[in-house]
Specification:
Structural class: alpha/beta
Number of helices: 19
Strand order of the largest sheet: 2-1-3-4-5
Radius of gyration: 27 Å
Shape: elongated
Number of strands: 14
Strand content: 5-15%
CATH topology of the largest domain: Rossmann fold
Number of domains: 3
CATH architecture of the largest domain: 3-Layer(aba) Sandwich
């Protein structure tokens, strides 16, 4: 429990500090309202104990300033100058309780414990209500043992500020999981900033994340806030964290440890409070061994890991995923009944789905758009999947690709890129180099 004690009587404050530390508390003690507000800029607290009368202000004004800053924390007020008016005013402002001096230290400790437990229960109740109200139409998790374990992990950490590392192959739902963690957590009404570390040119990653001062480089004609600062109060989701350049990893590690950012070309540090969720489809331990990822950053990110299974290991969930996807696009496209014959179902089940949920979603979207009537046929499926029906080797032939010239080229490019990524063991940067294209180009073509 992190406790802030605001008391100008030094001896009494020190006794309280010693007592709470003996109870295992993380205690900060200050003597003025100004020092208290400064303490809130440096860290978060679970409860505040404050004297009503302070040398430079009063406890109610401190509580009001904290509330106006958007910080929700219970206050326990103490005073030797009691009156009904001040008590009512304090409680109306949101104080958890009001104690009259002289007061026994043991009574303060007992009441603080009661208030802290009540606040924890209220937060838990608020979380449960949010989860009940949450619109799950954009989230799909199969009813399989491994997926149920993932959902249990999500429920345990969504109401905390723990740094989360989500691992899994491309298309397994890492971004979806990050959004769900944010949407049912205490920061759900604050920004969710998603950054694909691999899609930003290497020479721009630092300024994109940390911002830059005016004149920091040739084209910096004005100061710009970075994406980290944009996530203040909310959640920063760093997808493909394994692609973060080594020089930027050093600076990002400093941010994780100190919660401050310094824009490129600036000498001023900016304090940022946000939750960090990172994701990767690569083995970070291997990257550490290869000298491509900092070991200390890996340990800072890997506080709590959520591993998402590939779709091929959950084939029993395909009927559920198919129904979910069809219903989603029926609403988007305003279409009626959809029939999926056994021939198509068997093909979907036999396919290995290297692109996982994302590939399945794209395949069903295409099929729903191309079908001539209510029934989906094999020809409505993407060529890479449809080719499995006639036992092809997986290479695209001219006859297996339909549509306009542009769509045929895009399909072929995606197939070649997928094969290159597979050959590179999931290393997209290496795949881009083997194809002679930039990493950002590879991402753009995959998403087209």
């Amino acid at each position: 429990m992190k406790v802030l004690i605001i008391e100008d009587e030094t001896a009494f404050r020190q006794v309280l500090e010693e007592e709470f530390r003996g109870e295992g508390g993380d205690v900060t003690g200050v003597g003025t309202g100004k020092e208290a507000l400064q303490a809130f800029e440096d860290r978060e607290f679970d409860i505040v104990i404050t004297d009503l009368r302070l040398p430079d202000t009063d406890g109610i004004e401190v509580m009001k300033a904290v509330r106006e800053a958007g910080i929700e924390v219970p206050f326990l007020l103490m005073t030797a100058f009691a009156s009904v008016r001040t008590a009512v005013s304090a409680l109306q402002m949101g104080a958890a309780d009001y104690l009259i001096k002289p007061v026994r230290v043991a009574d303060v400790v007992r009441r603080v414990k009661q208030i802290h437990e009540l606040d924890r229960l209220q937060r838990e109740n608020t979380l449960l209500k949010r989860m009940v109200r949450q619109d799950y139409s954009h989230y799909w998790y199969p009813d399989t043992p491994v997926s149920q374990q993932v959902q249990q992990l999500i429920s345990k950490v969504c109401d905390t500020d723990l740094t989360i590392l989500i691992v899994g192959e491309t298309g397994t739902g890492k971004g979806m999981t990050a959004r769900l963690l944010h949407s049912v957590g205490p920061r759900s009404d604050r920004p969710f900033v998603s950054v694909n570390c691999g899609a930003i040119p290497e020479n721009l990653v630092e300024s994109e994340l940390f911002g830059h001062a005016k004149g920091a480089f040739t084209s910096a004609d004005k100061a710009t806030d970075g994406l980290i600062k944009a996530a203040h109060g909310g959640t920063l989701f760093l997808d493909e964290i394994g692609e973060l350049p080594l020089p930027v990893q050093v600076k990002f590690l400093t941010f994780l440890e100190e919660k401050i950012v310094r824009p490129v070309g600036s000498v001023k540090d900016i304090k940022v409070d946000c939750r960090i969720i990172a994701a990767t489809n690569r083995n970070l331990e291997d990257l550490v061994a290869e000298g491509k990822f900092r070991r200390d950053l890996y340990f800072r990110l890997n506080v709590f890991q959520i591993s998402l299974p590939p779709l091929r290991e959950q084939k029993e969930a395909l009927p559920s995923l198919m129904n979910f996807t069809i219903e989603k696009y029926k609403q988007s496209f305003d279409i009626g009944e959809v029939v999926v014959p056994d021939e198509v179902r068997d093909l979907l089940y036999s396919y290995s789905w290297p692109g996982n949920i994302r590939e399945f979603d794209n395949a069903m979207e295409r099929a729903l758009l191309l079908r001539e009537n209510k029934e989906i046929t094999v020809n409505d499926l993407p060529p890479a999947i449809a080719s499995a029906a006639v036992g092809t080797s997986g290479m695209l032939s001219p006859d297996s690709v339909s549509g306009s010239f542009k769509s045929r080229v895009e399909t072929f490019e995606r197939h070649v890129i997928a094969e290159a990524i597979k050959a590179a063991g999931g290393d997209r940067r290496a795949a881009a180099q083997s194809l002679g294209i930039g990493l950002s180009t590879l991402y753009r073509k995959l998403e087209s």
